[in-house]
Design a protein that fits this description.
- The protein has 13 helices and 9 strands.
- It is α/β, with parallel strands linked by helices.
- Helix 5 packs across helix 7 and helix 12 packs parallel to helix 13.
- The radius of gyration is 19 Å and the shape is globular.
- The two termini are 14 Å apart.
- 51% of the residues are buried.
């Protein structure tokens, strides 16, 4: 099987020649330069031959054109931090300017994607990373976004309307640049920060609008539910082919999720402890346990989230070998 057929068969619950696998990491500071980021993405894929390429723009690319100031401050996972919010007052939400996805920071991310897609030639699906609009709002305004949910909901909704439109336009431009689908990440669908009714109003509503705008235009889409105590069941009906969450840290387990999501589960290895620290036999054990939980069906081996940048190559190889040598189901 090639990468495309392997993932499509796995998502449908059909037999595969081997388990699909993908791991992803940031390339801090270099992710600001289109040529450097594209070079890293191409080298990463050619080295490991993953079944899926999760494109890795800076995690803050979506807020910088709205005035947020960001910096890489040495985070172990390579993520940039917002050091100055781009929006300070609730009344500013409706005043967010419309963005041109082909200019500024957004435009540079499209150029990086275009360069990488041209080099990789479609051999494996490339998923552009986009964020749930409420996640973008949180990065833009900080934790005060949750106060705005409760104290100025109409103003926040006006901002989310603008952010959603910008996200859709960027997503469509990403398809033109060579993406085959999207890695839609939400960092707010957690009981630790919101209620289900709040996420339904300020999160899911806009997530589904994005996915609806892309219907029929993509081949694969992956939903990433970030954090602990996540609202898995609230999001399990999203029209995506793959779902990913921190299955080693928070419910549901892979075994339980198999009954609650109808397509492909992505997970099984823990990125901050096991993949970073090892030992290699512990990494293999997590892969085998993921297979035991699912019977090896509708499973793609992946991390709960982004790898630490110091993850040893030997540990990546251990995960890859464990997935590719497991008996096909």
């Amino acid at each position: 099987m090639d990468h495309w057929r392997r993932i499509e068969a796995a998502a449908a619950g059909e037999p595969v020649d081997r388990l699909p696998i993908s791991l992803w990491r940031h390339f801090p500071d270099d992710d600001l330069d289109p040529a450097k980021l594209a070079g890293h993405m191409v080298s990463w894929q050619r080295k490991w031959d993953f079944d899926l390429v999760k494109f890795m723009p800076s995690g803050t690319y979506g807020v910088e054109d709205w005035g947020a100031v960001t910096a890489y401050q040495g985070a172990a996972n390579g993520a940039r931090a917002v050091v100055r919010a781009g929006l300070a007052r609730a009344e500013d939400w409706p005043r967010l300017p419309r963005l041109d996805p082909r200019k500024g920071v957004l435009g540079r991310q499209l150029e990086a994607l275009r360069l990488a897609a041209r080099e990789l030639g479609g051999g494996a699906p490339i998923l552009q990373t986009v964020f749930s609009p409420v996640t973008t709002a949180r990065k833009l305004a900080g934790e005060r976004v949750f106060a705005d949910m409760r104290r100025a909901p109409e103003a926040l909704e006006a901002g989310l309307r603008i952010i959603t439109d910008a996200t859709i336009e960027f997503a469509l431009a990403s398809l033109e640049a060579g993406a085959h689908g999207f890695f839609l990440a939400t960092q707010c669908a957690s009981y630790r920060v919101a209620t289900e009714s709040e996420y339904a109003r300020f999160g899911k509503r806009y997530d589904l609008e994005i996915l609806g705008a892309l219907k029929g235009k993509t081949r694969l889409d992956l939903l990433h539910i970030h954090g602990e105590d996540v609202m898995f069941d609230l999001l399990a009906d999203y029209p995506v082919s793959l779902v990913n969450w921190h299955d080693r840290l928070t419910a549901p387990t892979l075994r339980d999720a198999l009954k609650r999501f109808p397509k492909l589960l992505v997970g099984g290895v823990e990125e901050n402890r096991t993949l970073t620290r090892g030992p290699e036999n512990a990494i293999g054990a997590e892969v085998r346990d993921a297979i035991a939980q699912t019977g090896g069906r509708r499973l793609m081996i992946g991390p709960g989230c982004v790898l630490q940048i110091a993850t040893p190559e030997a540990h990546i190889r251990a995960a890859v070998d464990a997935a590719r040598t497991a008996p096909a189901r």
